[in-house]
Amino acid sequence: MSDDTTKPADAQPNQTADPVAQAPESWRDEFKSVIAQRDQLKAKMRAIEEAQAKADAEAMAKRGEFEQLAKQREEEVKALKAQLESTTKNFEKSQRISELKAVAKEAGVKDIEDVLKMVNVDEITDAKAAEASIDALKKAKPYLFAEKVPGIATPPVGGKNANTKADLLKDPVALSRLKRDNPGEYQRLMA
User: Fold this and answer.
1) Which of 109, 127, 108 is nearest to 118 (CA)?
2) Residue 175 belongs to some domain of the structure
């Protein structure tokens, strides 16, 4: 055997050694430049990832604000709907009471407040229902109604004894009733 101590061709240099130190002299500067660029790109990538994470966090916060704002608007809409429904019910009840009062005046009720306590206003849907309620009340409790005497107008609601021109002008229902039932008296008062 010979004394040759040559390394085989496939033997690789030590893996833990600095690659720049093992590179030929002409490549070392270029290799250092590439490593510097790599480090710069890694730093830029970290900055971009941090900026993206911050933007995502801000977007999530804005979505949270929008969701909160949307919930507030939903609550406001619910409150307005409830208020509208309440106002509508009150208006409808007021209309039913007005209809009942008009029919009660027409029928000669002495005290409208007593009638309002005795009649279920919620059952009044129109003028016919109001008339039916007043007719039923008139049959059940005739003492609540003034007797109509031909030629004399029914006293106005509230217990006043005389139909003066001022009273009639304040009460268009009584005025029209007087004109219809007693045109002569109507002419005399309006003259």
Assistant:
1) 109
2) yes
Per the structure, the count of domains in the chain is 1
Residue 179 belongs to what domain range? 147-191
Give per-residue pLDDT as tens, 156-171. Answer: 544 444 456 666 677 7
Structure tokens at 50: 């941090």
Give the closest residue to 73 by CA, choosing from 81, 62, 88.
Answer: 81
3-class DSSP state of 109:
strand
- CA dist 123 and 131 (Å) reads 12
Residue 162 within any structural domain of the chain: yes
- Residue 58 has which token pair? 């801000």
Count Cβ atoms within 10 A of the Cβ of residue 154 and give its class: 0-12 exposed, 13-18 middle, 19 or more buried. buried
Contact at 8 Å (CB) between 115 and 137?
Answer: yes
Whether 14 is covered by a domain: the verdict is no
Q: Does the predicted TM-score (pTM) go above 0.85?
A: no
- Helices and strands: H and E segment counts in the chain: 7, 0
pLDDT in tens, 29-57: 777 888 888 999 999 999 999 998 888 88
- Res 130: pLDDT: 84
Domain-located, residue 127: no
Q: Which residue has the tokens 């833990």?
A: 16
pLDDT of residue 69: 83
